[in-house]
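Lab notebook, bench 4. We co-purified these components, and the gel suggests they stay together. Before we commit to crystallization screens, I want a quick structural picture of the whole thing.
Request: model the full complex, all chains together.
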Amino acid sequence: MTTTETPAAGAPESRSEPNHALRLFLIWFVLALAADLVIWFVWYPHMPPGRMSDAARHQQFDIAVLAISAAPVIIFVLLYFVYAIVVWRAGAGDDSDGAPIYGNTKVQATWIIGTTAIVLWLFVFGTVELVVPAGAGAGEGPSPIWKLAGTQSATWTPGTNTMLQVQVIGQQWTFTYRYPQFGGMESAELMLPVDTPVTFHVTSLDVIHSFWAYQLAVKADANPLVDNVAYVTPKALGSVTVRCNELCGIWHGAMFNYGQVVSQSAFESWASGVQAKEQADGVLAALPPYTLTYDPTVIPQLGKNLVKIDGITGSPGYYYEPSNPVTP
Amino acid sequence: MSVPARAAVLIVAFLAVVGLGIFVAVYYIGSATTQLPIVHYTASNGQTNVVLQEDPQNDSATRPDWVTYYTQDPTTKQWLHTTLFSVPANTKVNVTIYGYDGCTPLRNNFWSVVQGTIGNTVTVQQFSKNNTPLGSAQSTSVINSWSDCNAGHTFAIPGMNIYVPVASPNALNSANNLCSSSPCTPTSGGAYALETFSFMSPSHTGTYRWQCLIPCGGGYIDGNSGPMQTLGWMMGEMDVVS
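Here is the predicted assembly.
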């Protein structure tokens, strides 16, 4: 950052200059204050992703704070441009050289200290906002560092602080959800109870996907053979849009479905009902045992049961022989 | 050259490049979809009948070894190599699928469950290579692809929560007896499974994608590419029209 100074010696004439710095500061202060007030009181309540979960509330707050931090900087830069164009433009017929430019230690120091303070503030703020809400809804990998508080149990009961386990399975081009605390039943619809700590175990059966439950502010990569853990606590009833957020093939853009956050009693009723139906229909028996990941290339059951005649399944239960595919 | 002249040249050059890009995109992307015929099914007494078949090969010159769906023209009864069809809105859609292709296990056996059809069931009748019915038609809610390899492909419309496993010819019966010339017919010498089910089309118009969920793109990594990702083969679109 530099500023201009007119050396006393050799100056063609002395002019009465207004205090540009004070002017700039006052204009900037008013605009920045107005912008930040608008951001906080008008924009913040409507910022994405909303307030449907604890993670969403934190993310909305984070975005608001970032906007409030960035607005004064942006306003200062733009204001300086406009001010320079309006106030310091050359007059008609003025072909004289501009004033020489000299360094200004105070301005440089102010800029460096100011931007450093902003960056450090954002670093500390971002770290706190990542740690406090247990990963802020992001996938933390198979061994999460920041864990959401909740009781671990093989079953889930409403009215307790028991963590609900939900496995998210991506495959071209849809998501399904398994609930290990309800017999490992699987559903094409995401259903969650309100005010309940939830652990998502996100994985894939084929290529790379990304589980993005927008209103819940959960986003976690879905990779084959990887258990990617993300936490959330739904805080409001309503509909959730689930999208794939990783280019995964020609219909990636159409890979979305919907979920619901319902009351705890409604969830228990739904989950128990699906479990009972899948038990009765033989679906649970047809599903593989619940594990955190599934090998997309091997189906062990087929090695035992398959009458291998004309399918493309190799033995013992491989989808394709090791030499397949033959790379073109 | 004056400044306005140079600016004009730049603008013209910029527009020419943008126009060329748009032309190329529209020409190729447009041609990729419009070359496929669209089969229009009309309603009669609130119902329409969609007829499909899935084959282990096809009659194309470029990819004859890809598995594929065919769609039957309701007027001419000709099999068209397309997966684009339209049905009327708010209509009972009766689907018949001739399963000529052999079995391939689902990667997620959850899709063995019939979902979204009326009654959440399908009816399956197995036929021998001589076009002789094997047993009686069975109504079922599960075609377990991990048990004796019963499913050939699936017919799924995720936007309507419709997931239907399509039965393959009986594995023992179809050994070395699959139809080898497409489009197949019941008398072409291959065993097959005849599957029927119904669903209600949405009350509002729109385009719904449908696809196979079995990784049947043999020759491609993990079977996920080729016909699995190409319109006219194992994925298609259903237009719901007024």
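Residues 4-11 of chain A have pLDDT under 50 and may be disordered. Worth comparing against the SEC data before the next meeting. The interface with chain B takes residues 169, 171-174, 176, 186, 188-189, 205-207, 249-251, 254, 257, 278, 281-283, 286-288, 296-297, 299, 301-302, 305-313, 319-320, 324-326 of chain A (CB under 8 Å).
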